[in-house]
Amino acid sequence: MATPCGGQIHREVQDYYGKVLQKSEDLKTNACITSARPLPKVVRDALERVHEEVVTRYYGCGLVIPECLASCRILDLGSGSGRDCYLLSQLVGERGHVTGIDMTEGQVEVAKKHIAYHMDKFGYRKPNVEFLQGYMEKLGDAVLADESYDIVISNCVINLVPDKRAVLREAYRVLKPGGEMYFSDVYASQHLSETVRKHSVLWGECLAGALYWRDLYSIAEEVGFSPPCLVTASPITIGDKELEGIIGDCRFVSATFRLFKVPGSSRTGPGQVIYNGGIVGHERELVFDANFTFKEGEVVDVDAEMAAILRSSRFAEEFLIRGSRANAAASQSCCRKEMKEKICDPFQLLERLAAPVPACHPGGTCGPLGCC
After folding, report:
1. Fewest beta carbons less than 10 Å away: which of 69, 196, 244, 310?
2. Whole-number percent of the chain with pLDDT over 90
3. What DSSP assignment string belongs to 291-324?
């Protein structure tokens, strides 16, 4: 479908986020409002230390704070006022580093203005954050080198970019082998009509540029990422009758995915893994995504993709990983958790989350989607 040119979209989005929106209450939909979800105490405490102006100017659509962050180098695409960067600054510690990049000058100015305030608040001797003005699909223009980051995050911004492939391609380029892209964004239940894709307000509200969710899987594969891991999903509602009429029967969802840059040498087939426990905020249980929850000491069967992810990423030291046929005794243990059919569709996940949770059978194990 025809869309406005990239330069026009960039200008309209910059105006919307730099001039039209002054606070999150100015939004016409809940696409860019974080859903209510329990946060680890370490994240809640970190959020309380972020400057009020930074939080007020935040328009993200999900929580993009992954686990196991100590000393990591993180890049935030579309960092806006810097809320997530300042959260992550505390979680990576003084030996880690966070870079935020955003195309809207006003947002970057807000983020930069509060660097000294936050470093003093965190007790850091020197800044471990920086903010750049630039485009996430052209990270080379900001002189961001190949394989220079452990994690790339983004929060409700990829939908604002016409060329999604370029964004994922650049993220893949700057990630180290085993690195992760962890991001929340808005997805559509179908390909959007030309009328929707040309609507300037719907672009600013994160809907006109929403990707059909199935296309994420094909783009990720094309770029070189492992298949996307669906983490969470929450419904999006339109609070404007005029916009509802333009959108028609298309549905939208806010969803969080994680993608990994898995080296070929790590792909050795399915396996069994045991979470060692101890990750800050997830000491006894790590909800990795909608399909895999790892409890401390529990044997879990994983497919080849998950085995490769855990083996090659920063999570490698947090797990005991072995081949699927190793240790037959453990495979018969009552603590063993077997694989189920994977959920890939965020709209299907919404339906399952809304459905009544069945009661557990004696000895059953409950996960985020009910009994195993």
Report:
1. 244
2. 68
3. S-EEEBT-EEEE-HHHHHHHHHSTTGGGEEEEET
